[in-house]
Amino acid sequence: MAFRYLFAIFRLYHMQNWHLFFGIFIISSPILFAMIAFPDSIAWSWNEGRGGYFFALVFVVAELIGLKIVISKKRLLSVIPLSALTILYLVSLEYGLREYLIESASQFNVQLIYSWTWMWDFVVMAIFIVAALTIFFGKRWIRIAPAGPIFLAGTAIILSLDAFFPYDTLGPLQYIVPYFVQANVWIITFLDIGTAVARDNIMFLRGDHGSMALQVFWPSAGVHSIIIFSLVIGAFMLKMNIPRNRKIIYFIIGIFGTIVVNLIRIFSLSWYALKVTTDPVAWEEYHKIAGEIMFLPWLFAFILVVIVIESRRLKKLESKNIKN
């Protein structure tokens, strides 16, 4: 009798693992397909490719792995057609759909075509993952695995803002940029690595390789990363079972840290012009990846640190309760 009971538990455990593994594979399959079939589209610039897919995938897998929730076979199979439709969308882009999106941009008064076309990639993927998670877990998905779809949806929102209100046309987001520029000029002057003068959102730089003028708009200043960070961390805090005051403290620290990362981002762009090259083509290549290679590691590192701190705090509380 005891053997049968243990065998039943063992079988249920492995069935849970198998179903969860299969569910993760199904929900990941469109992103994996995009990465394998169209590797050139996985660019790390936030507005020039699907690099955000990779980080959304990491969020989804990290939040689902290790769950002890049984996903029924019926629910698993019902997500497969949605996955196939999403893959069909990605393939259709190569056979005329992307051209249709480009042509439709003029009807909506879109200013930046590529932000418009990439936006739809993130909209479609966000819809798919939300639909899949809803089928798997119902309304509980928002507490189980919110970070991935919120990251995708947040990126889609930022791309839409960039498509319709590029450069400095969106006043509220552009408002804080001159303060970032002034702070960067002060750092350059303090470190004495070149000459820098600020005028509104423009920096005039003179360094080892000549002069260069940099006009900073809200995406280059990393304002979009503050918005995405707020959405992802907001979702992450929602699922954590910790006191509200601690959530607020973590959120404020995270926003402050993101602002510091953005200042480092602007400084690195200035340093590149002052010390490496003033060639516009070479500088632009660096500019495309500079922001994301700083912001996304910071986002993951911050989440990891919060998890470690709260796990240790929880263990201490449990040990105290056991002693009492």
Count structural domains.
2
> Sheet with the most strands?
3 strands, antiparallel
The order of strands across the largest sheet is 1-2-3
Portion of residues in helices?
over 70%
Count up the helices.
11
The helix-strand sequence is HHHHHHHHEEEHHH
Low-confidence stretches: 1-15
Counting DSSP E segments of at least 2 residues, the number of strands comes to 3
Please render the helix and strand layout as text:
Blueprint (H helix, E strand, L loop, with lengths): L1 H36 L13 H14 L8 H32 L8 H25 L3 H4 L2 H18 L6 H4 L2 H15 L3 E5 L2 E6 L2 E6 L7 H17 L4 H33 L3 H44 L1
Antiparallel strand pairs: 1-2, 2-3
Give structural notes:
This protein is mainly α and 324 residues long. 75% of the residues lie in helices and 5% in strands. The chain contains eleven helices and three strands; from the N terminus they run H-H-H-H-H-H-H-H-E-E-E-H-H-H. It has a three-stranded antiparallel β-sheet with strand order 1-2-3, with helices on one face. The model is unreliable at 1-15 (pLDDT under 50).
